[in-house]
């Protein structure tokens, strides 16, 4: 139930540093976690298998999307989506039903599947993974800390319960070159609100309230109720034709 913050160790001695969650998922479901870029700078967010290195996106069993609008797998880099920077919230979603990875930026879906993979990976546990160059970041696995709400049937990975699969280093793994920030827990990070333009931080929303939603709901209901009546009338007309005509007549009229 926390939003964890991490930053690079000054003495790490490497240009990049990777960290992988100690629990993953494999069998089914649609799972997500959210990462905030706290300081600006480059980082890569995605999923990796147990056997993958911590260099996210550099081997065939890891998939990452970076702040420079670049996706990578097996060391192949391609342009995708849009850049992200300081204070942006990136929700990384794994759809095990479709075997696809998609992303949301500040609650708005980045169009298209970032990655898809074949049936040969079915049953392979995949773990949330972050690879940072100079960026301080924070992450939530349960939606706490002001993460934009999920959509599209996705759930926070922390809710997977018995479906969670522990990584083999969960008990014995070392701290690595990424350390918990000293001020973790002091600042919960930006809160998000839904505006007519999508999810925005409270500061970005500039004091907008949720009152506009009542008018929007009434507007939508007005038109959907008319469509429902038209649909019902059309359905009744088709049923009447089916009941009064033979199979041959229906086929001739393009109904059967």
TrEMBL record:
<dbReference type="InterPro" id="IPR013320">
    <property type="entry name" value="ConA-like_dom_sf"/>
</dbReference>
<dbReference type="InterPro" id="IPR003877">
    <property type="entry name" value="SPRY_dom"/>
</dbReference>
<feature type="domain" description="B30.2/SPRY">
    <location>
        <begin position="1"/>
        <end position="150"/>
    </location>
</feature>
<dbReference type="InterPro" id="IPR043136">
    <property type="entry name" value="B30.2/SPRY_sf"/>
</dbReference>
<protein>
    <recommendedName>
        <fullName>B30.2/SPRY domain-containing protein</fullName>
    </recommendedName>
</protein>
<dbReference type="InterPro" id="IPR001870">
    <property type="entry name" value="B30.2/SPRY"/>
</dbReference>
<dbReference type="GO" id="GO:0003723">
    <property type="term" value="F:RNA binding"/>
</dbReference>
<dbReference type="GO" id="GO:0000380">
    <property type="term" value="P:alternative mRNA splicing, via spliceosome"/>
</dbReference>
<dbReference type="GO" id="GO:0005634">
    <property type="term" value="C:nucleus"/>
</dbReference>
<dbReference type="Pfam" id="PF00622">
    <property type="entry name" value="SPRY"/>
</dbReference>
